[in-house]
Amino acid sequence: MAWVGTHRHDAQGRNEAYAFTHVFRVSLALPEGARTLALPEDDGVRLLGASVLRRDNGGVRPATPLIERPVAALVR
After folding, report:
1. Each residue of 30-61: pLDDT tens digit?
2. Which residues 6+ apart lie within 8 Å of 23 measured at CB?
3. Residue 25: closest CA among 48, 44, 9
4. Which residues, 6+ apart, have CB-to-CB distance to 66 below 8 Å?
5. What is the pTM of this model?
């Protein structure tokens, strides 16, 4: 899991509270010389970005915590 969202935005840009979203990080080993990658057709999956690296993970690490920790709870 690379990210957990506590809301999402609708087509008009409004927040949809408690519509949790999840972003997963996936690594694929490609054969030497590969020029294309075919992904399965699945309406439930969205590709947000892709990168090609010559070494594992490329030294990438999170810049911030991957979850949001609440500072306080408020109920009225």
Report:
1. 888 888 888 888 888 788 888 777 776 667 77
2. 1, 2, 3, 4, 5, 48
3. 48
4. 1, 2, 3, 4
5. 0.47
